[in-house]
Amino acid sequence: DAMSALKNKVALVTGASKGIGRATAKELAARGAKVIAIARNKIELEKLSAEAFHENLNIMAMPCDVTRFDALTGVVQRILKTHKNLDILVNNAGAIDPISHLAESDPSLWIKAADVNYKAVYFGIRAVLPHMLEVRGGTIINVSSGAASSPREGWSHYCSSKAAALMLTRMTHLEYGNLGIRAVGLSPGTVATDMQVAIRASGINPISQLSPESHSPVERPAEIIAWLCTDDAKEFDGTDVSLNDEKIRQRARVN
To answer: Which residues contact 25 (CB under 8 A, 6 or more apart)?
Structure first.
């Protein structure tokens, strides 16, 4: 049963204070997982904790800056001390601000986006792998983007960092797929999040012209991520699947 496949699994979700990360934390917990939700926004994490309490969901919200490796390793050590295990990592944290053409881009802000979209993905993988290799099992889901393989005007920081994160998915599978470690990416398409608000405000490239009504609700990618965490999705290990792929939605039983 897909709904019980994650029962008692321990899952770490980054960028969990809002958007896809928040919805994923709640979806995994609704399926019986013990979820550790991390992000920098303490106020939103407190709101998530309150929601989880009222909805009887097992979610522990912890502030963490994923662009700092020591912060992530500290969270992982705390999880292992509390739960003795860590089955799932969802690398969801992402940033697209500020959108600009290369010639006008601010180098310090450009690098900040890359820190979240790329380096933090590596830090997350690097932080969990020693334990997962020790127990010969674990699942790593990297929230990707069509921008990883399709250049978009004004998004040089986002496209290039997502492309780098996609290669980390492939590298993790290449090096550790035969040792019980699953790694798979999800390109969620356009989703109704704060990121789409920023994209629309920029007025740059066709994505900014999309109607807000055309974006998926955050629950759709969350449900597909939950399915990707199960063995039913094992055939897609090492690849980047798309929410826009009807076959994927059918397999995940997502409308």
So the answer is: 11, 13, 16, 35, 37, 48, 59
Residue type at 44 in one-letter notation? E
Nearest to 155 by CA among 194, 97, 211: 97
Largest CA distance in the chain: 52
Cα–Cα distance list, 92 to 66, 131, 204 (Å): 10, 20, 24
Contact 80, 86 (CB under 8 A): yes
Structure tokens at 246: 């009807």
What dihedral do alpha carbons 149, 104, 191, 21 form, nearest 10°?
90
Cα dihedral sign, 239-117-163-193: positive
Using DSSP's 3-state secondary structure scheme, residue 11 falls into strand
The structure tokens listed for 227 are 């399915």
Active centre residues (catalytic): 158
Residues making up the chain, counted from first to last = 255
pLDDT single digits (tens) 115-143:
999 999 999 999 999 999 999 999 999 99
Torsion of CA 219, 19, 71, 49, to 10 degrees: -70
Using CA atoms, how far apart are residues 178 and 204, in angstroms rounded to an integer?
43
Question: Does the predicted TM-score (pTM) go above 0.85?
Answer: yes
Cis preceding-peptide flag for 98 (omega within 30 of 0)? yes
CA distances from 76 to 23, 72, 80, 126, 141 (A): 21, 6, 6, 11, 16
Interatomic CA distance for residues 26 and 234, integer angstroms: 22
Say how far apart CA 115 and CA 86 lie, in whole Å: 24
- What is the C-alpha to C-alpha distance for residues 117 and 161, in angstroms, rounded to an integer? 6
Confidence label for 194 from pLDDT (cuts 50, 70 and 90):
confident
